[in-house]
Design brief:
Layout (H helix, E strand, L loop, with lengths): L2 H9 L8 E2 L10 E5 L6 E6 L3 H18 L4 H17 L1 H12 L3 H21 L7 E2 L6 E9 L3 E4 L7 H12 L4 E4 L5 H17 L6 E3 L4 H9 L6 E5 L2 H13 L3 E5 L4 E5 L5 H13 L9 E7 L3 H14 L18 H16 L3 E4 L17 E4 L17 E7 L2 H9 L3 E2 L1 E5 L3 H7 L11 E4 L11 E2 L2 E2 L6 E2 L8 E9 L14
Helix pairs in contact: 1-4, 3-5, 3-7, 4-5, 4-7, 5-6, 10-11
Bound molecules: nicotinamide-adenine-dinucleotide (NAD).
Nicotinamide-adenine-dinucleotide (NAD) binds next to helix 8 and helix 9.
Length: 512
Amino acid sequence: MTHALREALSSLSLIDHPRLILNIPASQDKGLSIVSSPTTGRPIAAVRLDDERSYEETLGRSVAAFRKWREVPAPIRGQVVRAIGDEFRTHKDALGAIITAEVGKITSEARGEVQETIDIADFAVGLSRQLYGLTMPSERPGHAMREQWLPLGPVGVISAFNFPNAVWAWNAMLAAVCGDSVVWKPSLLAPIIAIASNTLAQRVASRFGHEDLFTLVMGSDQVIGERFIADKRLPLISATGSCRMGRRVGEVVSKRLGRSLLELGGNNAAIVHEDADLDLAARAIVFAAVGTCGQRCTTTRRLIAHESIVDQLLAKLTKAYQSVKIGDPAQDGTLVGPLVNARAVEGFEQAIAAAKQQGGTVLVGGSRAPVTGLTGHFVQPTIIRAPANNQLPIAREETFAPILYVFTYRDIDDAIAMQNGVDQGLSSCIFTRDAGIAERFLSPAGSGSDCGIANVNLGTSGAEIGGAFGGEKDTGGGRESGSDSWKAYMRRQTCTINFSGKLELAQGIKFE
Ligand code: NAD
């Protein structure tokens, strides 16, 4: 256990949490999962996993909590969520420190993630007075028609390691104002921040008499994960993670005719047109490609640059890449922390080897990045130029590491086709000063970017919570966070009221 982690847990009164074991036992215990630091590669704590009995107990408590919570009027539910947001506000730095210790995010990005939680709580509070349904004119005299949105049930949330706090919050804060309880199954790469976040929310909910509104189950994908997605008591499974995981969740949930909300992998491209502000584009691309050590679903993985400016842009990018400080994510000035584990480093190395074998040229980076005094999973942010024919099959895959593949184009339609020519469809962007080119990229005919997110003159990552977040194709089609994403957490009911005193059938049918 690092000093910073102990301090953060202590400030949250979590040192004695029954799930947390700070002195890791020497002998293997099947009921425990070891958490390792990406910065040192060494174990920092262990967490206690669920077994069949504790899983059942948690689900039972969540169902009971839902039945009670749904009776609370939505604006009052909003007050509870407001108090939860305040709790996260108070403990933003401590929670950020846990994220840094556990997944290696640099301090400012880790705190930024907690800020997302605070923001979505604020958003949800406003929403608690705006869960609007429509009224429709009835075709029958003396009839009224309306639809209403009703609580759905306990919502199952599966989160990825790379946003171990915000992904839960996007789901949990909306679900809570919608009248749902939440059962969270976090990644075993980031269980400590899950324990901390869930406990904070649970403490606040308890103050209002709803102690089991937020619950947690933890265990392997094979045992607890599979049980969770097959569980009919969870009418909605909101799952964030790889496309491989999403295919499995989609299959199991649809088999039981449940609902799934899938937020899966991305393979995001930035198009840089010939008239772009190259300084602005370069700054945006560096953040989007290198930030979080390339471990965001929205990380820019492909650069599609106009052939007339590609060399100039690459010169700027290369210079920036060489000056980026790699190191301890908790230290001021570090911009790139470690990858999450040794497997991620292997994936990085394999992708680079494949790119070289396929004719790609490494322009910058390309190997591990030893950091003095640290034994963690550090790699160099890498730029690889595709061969002149733009054929580089490895770039079609999402490698969760800071690798940017560079392609060139002459015609904007080719650039858009290239950007769309992958299986994933999460985020995209274009840099141009030409409004016509920007609108072509956003074409209302749907012939522009095929992604769920399409930006102009900013990078692919760093979305605000106010918009609906998610992607198309293999990214899963789900939408979370802002706009009308809340509808996924409720069920719609259409109500027709006959106040005419006579029975009249729709479509003019007579049945005397
Ligand atoms: P992962 O797919 O390995 O794991 C994600 C979660 O799914 C974990 O909690 C894991 O335990 C769980 N899981 C896996 N198999 C399961 C099963 N059979 N049943 C139940 N749960 C199961 O992903 P990861 O490595 O943690 O995260 C990185 C991936 O997540 C990347 O592909 C990234 O693009 C994606 N991601 C997407 C978004 C988005 O909003 N689109 C956001 C963050 C991350």
